[in-house]
Amino acid sequence: MLPALLLPVFMAVSNAFIVNVATPSIQKGLGASFADVQFILTGYTLTFAVLLIIGARLGDRFGRRRMLFIGVALFTIASLLCGLSAHVTMLIASRVLQGVGAALLMPQVLSLIQANYTLERRGAIFGMYGATQGIAATAGQIIGGLLLRMNLWDLDWRAVFLISVLLGALILALIPFIPESGSSDRAGLDWMGAALAAAGLLMLVYPLVQGQREGWPAGLVVSLLLSAPVLVLFAWYERRLLRRGRLPFMNIDLFRHKVFTFGILVVLLLMSSQGAFFLVSAYLLQLGLHFSALQAGLVIGSMGMGYFLASLFSSRVAAKLGAHVLTVGSILTTAGYLLLSWAVRTTGVSSDIGVWIPALAVLGIGQGFVAAPLTNIVLAKIRTTDIGSASGVMTTSIQIASTIGIALIGIVWLSALGAHTGSVSAYPDAFNICLYVLAAATALILPLALMLAGRNGARRS
């Protein structure tokens, strides 16, 4: 039963990293623009984010194993469509469908673990769940690069999607061995809240991606400006549902807890910078330094290994430092970006980038020390009855942050490349500017981490 629960997690998480390393090849193969590539990435993450909580509610109502099967089936079909896409519009639409499948399957895994394993075994199972995510993130870049290097049957970038078809078929064969479970709760689904959230986020993300390409026409500027009131309307509507005793799409009252608000801000800063970094690093390595996709995946893999190891040992560090593990992680993350910037300036356009590896390892370790213990530190201060809602909001925030980070970094990246047009070091110089922006963003995690640690200490005393 356990492989049937962990393999879907590996498939959904690794997919984002496998596709990321293939973005330059996808752009070349389909004759797409950089904005199109951003939509290929954000179409998946935005759909995933908006439908994640709805997916959990559907599992409670109609059966978690059933929704897991439907989610994996949709993801598998969408992966096939991605691999068969003849133009970028079809690929973006297929990626959106992949996001729907991921949103249906991911929440069922945690619920099925809760339902099928005793309290004594859950700690080990959840540890394996976290390790699976770490392995998927680390291996995803390398798998993507390896598939492009092998270029089986001249599939090129299409192989990074078609591999999920094979994995999906295996998972579908295993799912019937999982016992079914559900919930007696038959509360109505908040489709209006989901629609308002989707509309507000789309009105925010679409102009950020397309604005640079189209010269910021009035329509995109208006959309960007209107996204704020639409999201405010969403918050008002959700609070109105709570006051009426109905179940909202998102429990807005959670943000009255300062620990939770600080935690969400850390998630937004960390994950937006991470999503942005993976995108621009793929372009620097493959287009700027002419690395193969496999070589690029192996380089970024050193960061993933640091992230994985820090995640494994973060509980031990947290046992000694408490919430200050986040303080250490935030300092190392910012230092990692600055060290990498120094390394990039040192190597320039040279492909001899061994000096990058320690900086990438520091960056990965820093991110691991923030990401791994954050959920536990924040949820420990939330009432037991609200933990389900809080964890759902945090998971959704990760996908939203990645979407926004990819959208924003595109503006910085294209502007920096444009400013260095004609320079032999255009790509390294543009990448350095992006690193300064990411270092500045993650530096804001430090005061938040200190406030979280202070409140954690105050609660203990």
UniProtKB/TrEMBL annotation:
<feature type="transmembrane region" description="Helical">
    <location>
        <begin position="356"/>
        <end position="379"/>
    </location>
</feature>
<feature type="transmembrane region" description="Helical">
    <location>
        <begin position="400"/>
        <end position="418"/>
    </location>
</feature>
<feature type="domain" description="Major facilitator superfamily (MFS) profile">
    <location>
        <begin position="1"/>
        <end position="457"/>
    </location>
</feature>
<keyword id="KW-0812">Transmembrane</keyword>
<feature type="transmembrane region" description="Helical">
    <location>
        <begin position="325"/>
        <end position="344"/>
    </location>
</feature>
<feature type="transmembrane region" description="Helical">
    <location>
        <begin position="68"/>
        <end position="90"/>
    </location>
</feature>
<protein>
    <recommendedName>
        <fullName>Major facilitator superfamily (MFS) profile domain-containing protein</fullName>
    </recommendedName>
</protein>
<feature type="transmembrane region" description="Helical">
    <location>
        <begin position="259"/>
        <end position="285"/>
    </location>
</feature>
<dbReference type="Pfam" id="PF07690">
    <property type="entry name" value="MFS_1"/>
</dbReference>
<dbReference type="GO" id="GO:0005886">
    <property type="term" value="C:plasma membrane"/>
</dbReference>
<feature type="transmembrane region" description="Helical">
    <location>
        <begin position="96"/>
        <end position="113"/>
    </location>
</feature>
<keyword id="KW-0813">Transport</keyword>
<dbReference type="InterPro" id="IPR036259">
    <property type="entry name" value="MFS_trans_sf"/>
</dbReference>
<dbReference type="GO" id="GO:0022857">
    <property type="term" value="F:transmembrane transporter activity"/>
</dbReference>
<dbReference type="InterPro" id="IPR011701">
    <property type="entry name" value="MFS"/>
</dbReference>
<feature type="transmembrane region" description="Helical">
    <location>
        <begin position="191"/>
        <end position="209"/>
    </location>
</feature>
<feature type="transmembrane region" description="Helical">
    <location>
        <begin position="291"/>
        <end position="313"/>
    </location>
</feature>
<feature type="transmembrane region" description="Helical">
    <location>
        <begin position="430"/>
        <end position="453"/>
    </location>
</feature>
<feature type="transmembrane region" description="Helical">
    <location>
        <begin position="159"/>
        <end position="179"/>
    </location>
</feature>
<feature type="transmembrane region" description="Helical">
    <location>
        <begin position="215"/>
        <end position="238"/>
    </location>
</feature>
<feature type="transmembrane region" description="Helical">
    <location>
        <begin position="125"/>
        <end position="147"/>
    </location>
</feature>
<keyword id="KW-0472">Membrane</keyword>
<feature type="transmembrane region" description="Helical">
    <location>
        <begin position="37"/>
        <end position="56"/>
    </location>
</feature>
<dbReference type="InterPro" id="IPR020846">
    <property type="entry name" value="MFS_dom"/>
</dbReference>
<keyword id="KW-1133">Transmembrane helix</keyword>
